Amino acid sequence: MSDGPFGPQVLRTDPSPSSGATTSLSSMAYRDGDFKQLVDLHPETKSKPGRIKLLAPNLGEAFCEALIARTLSVKRKPIVPSYGLQPRIVVEHALEAEDVRHQRDKQLTLVAVVFGLLFLPGTLLWLLVFELARRAPEKSRELYQNLGIVVVVLIAGLLAWHPGSVTGFWGMYLRVMTIVPLVGWYLARRICLNTAQKLRDRWNGLLDGTAVGPTVPGAVPKGPDDHKAENQRMRLAELLAEQDTNIGHYAGAKGILGIGPRWGSWSLAEQLTPAEGHQEIRPFHNFDLIRKIEEHLHRLGRSAVAEGGIPGVRVDHWVLLPVGEGADEISRPAGPDMDGHRMRSVAVADLANKQTFGEGPRHYLGAQFVLWNGQLIVTLMANVSVLHDTLRIEVTGHALGPVNPLFGKKAAPPEKTVAKRGKFWEEVTIQLPIVDNAEVVRLATRAPFTWPWSATLLNWLGGSVKLPEPFGIRSAWAGRPWTHRFMADDAIRVATPFLRACHAGTMELLADHDVNLERFQARSQLLGAEVQGVRPFKADVYDAD
User: Fold this and answer.
1) Cα–Cα distances in Å, from 22 out to 86, 306, 490?
2) Which pick of 167, 187, 259, 414 has the fewest CB atoms within 10 Å?
3) What are 134-146's pLDDT values in tens digits?
4) What single string gives the DSSP state of each residue in 365-420?
5) pLDDT tens figures, 246-257
């Protein structure tokens, strides 16, 4: 069905997602492990410690909770666009993973109530064992756990053999109160293993390219009164619409948010003088030159040499707003100049002609290249300005590298190296269950707190993660492309044809308007030689007081 803003929808499933970055980031929703790995990915990611470590989330739970809260909450802040990525699909995978966990937690809650809460004294004894083991040093954790289990088993045996002077119902209760929780633990372990295997299959399927797209039944309204599903559908549609914005934000040394810092800068600035035989130049607007350059940029996909065209060139007009390097929020203009999240073409042209000198937004013409299956985003920007009689065309290069390698790590069964039986001087690696006893206890203890009415309580007890701001799904975990030789080569190589397209468009328009081209051609040749030997540098960092 339609993906528009009105009416019920069936969300699209895509058996072969178009972006490796999309699948890598989506796989994080299905992962297990310590959530501190997520905190360590970005220095501005904040974690709020909980009161009870037994209720702390794992990696996938923390990622899903933080991502859904940041992207789908009612009063969320604007989100930085994610180029080379489909953010809606990433969020939908987080919703699907949360739904799988919620189905597990409903079963675990039932088990916890019947086999745990009704036999609370015995349950508390078992929980005390695992909590003490969790607090013990890692090297002796298993020893503490085994000792605790032995103690509780002895207590259980003693009570089962002789519950003291208590008889009747309470005597029977004392006999079984430490045994029944073991039955609950067995059932909970089966539930946890089945769910963990399902999540890991989705994790590996995404990275292998065999998984189907996410299914989110909660975003498909079942009728006109299904307001909850309708609201979620509208928020997902809003996330998709926000991705199409042409409003960018320049944040000092961070560069353009979502696009990356500048790695190169070239300027063509010369005086506008009449050509020989003309007393004055024919007047033109900045946007006339910009449109001429745009025509040449669209030709980058073609070449006289077979397979010489640059595929997938996306040319667009950008409006950049300045924000502080330490800003924790961005905003976009509102009013008649805006069409949703995009500035209208007429307003963009007017801004380019006014050419801000001083405070205010600035116009840039950009060409973007999504390479390496979404792992490399190369953006080249051109800005045109005229001050007095000097025409200046400034070209800047921006690059956003691959997402952190953690997102591409596949699920592997936990292993342990132990001494070989009979040959203690040799070692052998054995595979461990994907869900150990401590994890079963953690999940069963968390389950009753995972319902919507107790989510804030669970965050207070177990802790939570806050994503870095201003937040962009792609840019938050992007690395530098310069450590990868071929990625660096691609980013550098594409700058030359872009720069020459800008110069060709400039010369063509200036010639049509009776401008002397001698100085422009000389400067263009110098820049052509300069860009051939360019080396990436921190162009956004100025060594000046």
Assistant:
1) 6, 31, 21
2) 167
3) 777 767 666 766 6
4) EEEEEEEGGGTEEEEEEEEEEEETTEEEEEEEEEEE-PBPGGGGPPP---EEEEEE
5) 999 999 888 899
Q: Are the beta carbons of 32 and 59 closer than 8 angstroms?
A: yes
Reply yes or no: is the peptide bond before residue 43 cis, omega within 30 of 0.
no
Residue (of 90, 47, 50, 48) closest to 67 by Cα position: 90
> Sign of the C-alpha dihedral, residues 478, 479, 480, 484?
negative
Buried b (16+ CB within 10 A) or exposed e, 295-316: ebbeebeeeeeeeeebeebebe
Residue 424 has pLDDT above 80, yes or no: no
Give residue 218's identity as a one-letter amino acid code. G
Q: How far apart are CA 361 and CA 322, in angstroms?
A: 7
Report pLDDT for 436.
86
Q: What is the DSSP letter of 138?
A: G
364 three-class SS:
strand
Q: Tokens standing for 61?
A: 């739970």
At residue 306, the 3 state secondary structure works out as coil
From the list 149, 157, 147, the residue with the least C-alpha distance to 177 is 157
Assign 80 to helix, strand or coil.
coil
Res. 509: pLDDT tops 80 = yes
Task: Supply the pTM of this predicted model.
Answer: 0.85
Rounded Cα distance between 478 and 261, Å, is 12
